[in-house]
Fold Enoyl-CoA hydratase.
Amino acid sequence: MSDSLVLTETRGRVGLLTLNRPKALNALNDELMDRLGEALLAFDADPGIGAMVLTGSEKAFAAGADIAAMKDYTHMDAFTGDFITRNWEALRRVRKPVIAAVAGYALGGGCELAMMCDIVIAADTARFGQPEINLGIIPGAGGTQRLPRAVGKAKAMDLVLTGRRMDAAEAERAGLVARVVPAARLLDEALEVATAIAGMSLPAVLMAKEAVNRAYESPLSEGLLFERRSFHSLFGTEDQKEGMAAFLEKRPPSFKNR
Ligand code: CO8
């Protein structure tokens, strides 16, 4: 449906989600985040889907939380209404990889949304930032936590305290972005990456995502143990036998996702 706030389509084994509030530069309101969470979880549950791409418009991935919607919030509106947590938690439940394809502005909640994805691919037009300080607030969906983990304290402090924007080249140098491509290539590049991932063995992909995320949540010794246990368990899959047999037989593998 073209008037939906989140457009969805499938490209082979890839689920493509497009934020569709272009006149407000994809400002994130509750309804949009509800739709996005539902769409991501639906693709996550679909056995025909192996990876997802989340994108916005040419001008904006998302210019942040909807300022008009939250302008008159009181402390209690935000707290008792569970502002942000309620419909952002769905994203954390997604087990398949999500690739953010970012063109234009990814600011505030838009930058935080990109950082919740597993791989960020940026167009050369992309601009990242946490400008909340200009509004008299601070980031509220992970900007003060995920940004330092991605780019280090020095640059995170610079961005969060001044509200300045970072272009795509700086974001790539800083480690926020995996690849930068010309704007015209953005969607093709993201779909190619997602298609390649969706062609891998799904159990291995899910475990790889879990294990990399563990690196942020646990001490090294615990993370290494988690990785080793996951690694050992993959020898119980048919796909491991197929992958290694295919290599030795010099042919492409045909994974069954089990
Ligand atoms: N909220 C609501 N409307 C917005 C937003 C926004 N964040 N961003 C842009 N718009 C609207 C504008 O009001 C304008 O609407 P209208 O045409 O009706 O006047 C339309 O989009 C186009 O915007 P501009 O005319 O401003 O376009 P420009 O090209 O001149 O400027 C900018 C583009 C630089 C992106 C500018 O729009 C801007 O600075 N936007 C606000 C960016 C910002 O401050 N983001 C942070 C918001 S706070 C936040 O995200 C807190 C996160 C908390 C967690 C997330 C919870 C969901």
